[in-house]
Amino acid sequence: MAVAMGGWSAGQAIWSWHQISTGTLMPGPSLADVGYFTLPVFAFAALLVLATDGSRSEPGDAEALPRGRSPWVLALDGLIVVGALFNITWSTALGPVVHAGAPTPLAFAVTIGYPVTDLILVVMVILLLGTYRGSRPRRPQLVLIGLGLIGISTSDSIFAYLVSSGAPAMPPILDTGSMAGPVLIALAALAPVPGPARETRRYGWATEWPYLLAPYLTVLVGGLIVLGGMIAGNQPEPIVVYVGMLVVALVVIRQALVLRDNGVLLRQVVDAQERLTHLAYHDPLTGLANRIQFHDRLASAVVESRRCGRAVTVIIVDLDDFKMVNDSMGHGTGDAILRAVAERLRACAGRAATVARLDGDGFAVLAAADLDQARELGQAILTTLTQPFTEPGRPVTVGASVGVVLSSASEPELTADALIRRADAAMHSAKRRSKGGMVVYEPGIAAALGDPDLPMLLATALRGGGGFDVHYQPVVRMDGATAPVAVEALARWTHPTLGAVPPDVFVAAAERAGLIAELDNLVLDRACHEAVTQDEPLDMHVNVCASRLCEPELEEAVRAALDRSGLPGTRLVLEITETSRVPDLDAAARTIVSLRQLGIRFAMDDFGTGYNTLAQLHLLPVDIVKLCQAHTAVDGEERIEALCRSVVSICQALGLTVIAEGVESAAQAEVLARLGCQLGQGYLYGRPAPVGHADDEVDHPTDAAAVRANELSTA
Description:
By secondary structure, the chain is α/β, with parallel strands linked by helices. The protein has helices spanning 2-22, 31-52, 71-100, 105-131, 139-164, 176-190, 205-231, 238-281, 291-308, 322-329, 331-349, 371-386, 416-433, 446-449, 454-464, 503-513, 516-532, 552-565, 585-596, 614-619, 629-632, 638-653, 666-675, 701-710, and strands spanning 313-319, 354-357, 362-367, 400-406, 438-441, 468-477, 484-495, 499-501, 539-544, 572-576, 601-607, 624-627, 657-661, 679-681.
């Protein structure tokens, strides 16, 4: 652009010097014309550079094109602008110049060269500013240079028109473009260039209107000029009429293309809305309904059931230990199995039912069924899911726990949320009883499964401490002595309206609601305080959730409980429960080592079930192993005896004390003692009871099984 302005300035200097020195216009062609024509040649190149600068972005970036406009529409816009500006130029400068002629062909070429090059520059500026959108780094320079070139070209065209019409001089006001144009171009050189960061694109009417109106404004201006000439008595020339008709035809074609493009765009919008709606109400992995759609359909079904008196069945299906599949076989295999589970659930439920995926490995079924049909459907789901999955290329077996609930005419105000909570409670009850089972939530067994609002009630009770008691079950030596050497603290909860809530129910609710730490800490505090009030210095066993071993809060809570109560750490045994996994075994081991420095010992509760396995026994520095009832039921069972003997031998080799849980008969105690178990705990020695009453709660062996059916200790 510097070369262009340098040449133009040189031409202007030669022209001005001749006019000042002679008092007459410089005849052409002359050296001044060479300088003047330098401007359009190099300005054209400069505009191309500015138009492309900064637009080299990511492949396929359509920032340079106006949104929603096809290349054909852009080409038509260019032709419309060219045609309209040609008519303007012909009517104002080019036509008179052509008609006036020149003495020589060279002079004629130079004479018409000015309006023609002016037309080319103006067309290019309008096309660049009107059809190329975007926040390029040099767009301010492009605007300033474009306006400057338009100003210079306008003044040139006016001058050519006046010369061809025989005007003696050019009024100074009409030469404003020649003065303002260079100033604008100079400002373009001074305009700051933004950094390479891409600006945020904001589309709206304020940014769209130049691109939409540019073709029509040129047509409007051209039409007004022709109309003004006709009013003045000048009939338009044939070339102006023909070009005008061509421009009108191009405008019509353009509008037709825009209508077609708008139709395509509308179809795309409708398709996109349908896809978004589908994504909003369906699970992207399995194609099943998601939680939102399931809840909506369940709410509608509940309303319909109130009107028609027909029961609504909700079945919650949760895959057992599915995380192990993802961890051991990869998420690709896990996703394939989830899709296969979805297909099997569809096949079991039928077309009339709604099958949904609620979360990672949780599914739900909504069906219109009575109790027998609901049981049959739940059992069919369990049966089909026990069949091995072969989609990943090798057989994989995945179990599931199922909870079933039916709406009842006796509860007309039952909501969709309440049904889901009840089905979820039934499923978790099935999972805790024995994975791979089914539990039906019925009003008659509501107390066994827990109220659907149990987490909220439990949180309220934990904050106030109301309704919670701690019972203690003795641990005795199996050498024939009956005096306890330790007791295990077990939580009991009696709600004002629900009554006595089974431990397995409220413990499971605490784990699901994230309240297990509060429950553990409540039991720990009370157990430590009550331990120091007793005359006999018995060891105190307190359960802690395995997942808390990785949290600094556990160590802080234990130290605080010991400080508040004054109980020596040597009398405290923390039992690691089996219902949750240890997320980080190394961190858990560090916590155990730290607390053992206070004299605290650790026991692995219910060894052989849940997550308490040989791997944890190897990695966690525990002191005691409590064998679960499945390993201590040795009455006449040779295989169980052999298994128990092996586990006890491993523990003895590791220097660990073994406590046999679930001891219910003298014969069983004798066998366990012979196999090497040093300590025992069970209904043979006493049921859980409040402090001070443990000695009165010794059960006869014949009553122990019946008692155990109703008394479940915390896990």
